[in-house]
Design brief:
Two copies of one chain form a homodimer. By secondary structure, chain A is of the alpha/beta class. Chain A has eight helices and eleven strands. Chain A has a six-stranded mixed β-sheet, with helices on both faces. In chain A, strands 7-2-8-1-9 form a five-stranded parallel β-sheet, with helices on both faces. In chain A, a hairpin with a 2-residue loop joins strand 4 and strand 5. Chain A is globular and about 45 Å long. Chains A and B meet through helix 6 of A and helix 6 of B.
Chain lengths: 226, 226
């Protein structure tokens, strides 16, 4: 069993299993929503696709953001703290980085799982149980390296006990350099300010037992189930 | 002044200054050759281009390798230990990763410098003196993350005192995780075995005062001068 880390979606390598990591916030929000009772999450890259699906699917709710601001006319934003209770069967979510990264991983890997600090223990246990080669794919920020995702990737690698690529070794060294997850997430330099409460929420470790996985496509959306 | 690190050539971002890093071995071999007395190094991606230039340019020597083995018919290999004394005016070198990375950097940056551990102090001083935004571009291995280049990038960043991107912070954390350069270079997992003596040679820090820079193109080759 070999573990590799792609620090950006473009570096995604072939492997039996991919774990997509977008700590702030898609892969934190999705396990939170599934754990709360949503049956599935449909991830859309485009706002218009999400709006259309909302009209087509009964019992759905649409959430999303651009630059951390809720999209006009959407039912909710994309903060995991908005999904503590289920308000629908299907959550439609528009996350540019996350969806793109999930689809990139699906091109190269048979199984696509979603990981964050919230489900750290569960996702590592799932990958260990499969015993197959894994690539942890960081969503990053607009295609570039993001420290929070690299940190989480390193935490996952550290729990696998697998043979490591150069990037997997580096991710583990980065993760080991921070006293705790909250400190690591606060060290990031990119993106808009104002996410302090979400950062605190997403810094909690192994509080959710769910491992979201890609089930297939629903039109232009990636369908994620627990 | 802002410092960024591209862990692979594809991540190269725009900046006033690029420092290309290919520790094993192109950006160690080139400053060594220039310090020894070669006037210039012409970097070719293709073996046939190097052969042709060797025939066209009087007083030239051609070196290169594929998978760490000297190319058939070439005068020398690509080990920095082969360039302790000048044997010609022009060294023609065929290094796939290195040349590709230099050209990628030239597309996005006004100034392209070459850095390694051998010229660590000199290249950092040059970048500090310019005071402009810099991206350290790791050549990596076949497009992927390489621990030796990331280590060297982190060492360079640590000497700049610049504002750092997420990737620059991560590179510095990786560099700070190793007791010394030799240990870091031995930790890499990619590539062919058998480079032990070159690894030891390339682990020496700030022993060369030269900062190689891209002067322009000579046909398909990147012309590097001190």
């Amino acid at each position: 069993m070999r573990a590799h880390v792609a620090f950006t979606p473009d570096e995604t390598a072939s492997a039996a299993v991919a774990v997509v990591v977008d700590v702030l916030r898609a892969t934190s929000t999705i396990p939170q929503a599934l754990a709360a009772g949503y049956r599935r999450v449909l991830c859309c890259a485009e706002i218009e696709e999400a709006r259309r699906l909302r009209g087509e699917i009964e019992g759905s709710l649409v959430g999303g953001e651009r630059d951390a601001v809720r999209i006009d006319g959407f039912d909710v934003g994309a903060s995991p703290r908005e999904f503590l209770e289920p308000r629908a069967d299907t959550l439609i979510l528009s996350t540019t980085n996350g969806t793109r990264t999930i689809l990139r991983a699906a091109e190269r890997c048979q199984v696509v799982l979603l990981g964050s600090l919230l489900n750290l223990g569960a996702v590592a246990e799932e990958v260990r149980g499969r015993g197959e080669d894994v690539v942890v794919v960081c969503a990053g920020f607009k295609g570039a390296f993001a420290l929070d995702d690299a940190y989480c990737a390193g935490r996952i690698v550290a729990l696998l006990g697998a043979e490591r690529s150069d990037a997997a070794i580096a991710a583990e060294l980065v993760a080991g350099s921070f006293a705790d997850a909250h400190t690591a997430l606060l060290a990031r330099t990119y993106g808009p300010p104002g996410l302090e409460e979400d950062i605190l929420f997403c810094s909690r470790e192994s509080v959710l037992p769910v491992v979201p996985r890609l089930a297939g496509m629903v039109g232009p959306a990636a369908e994620i189930i627990a």
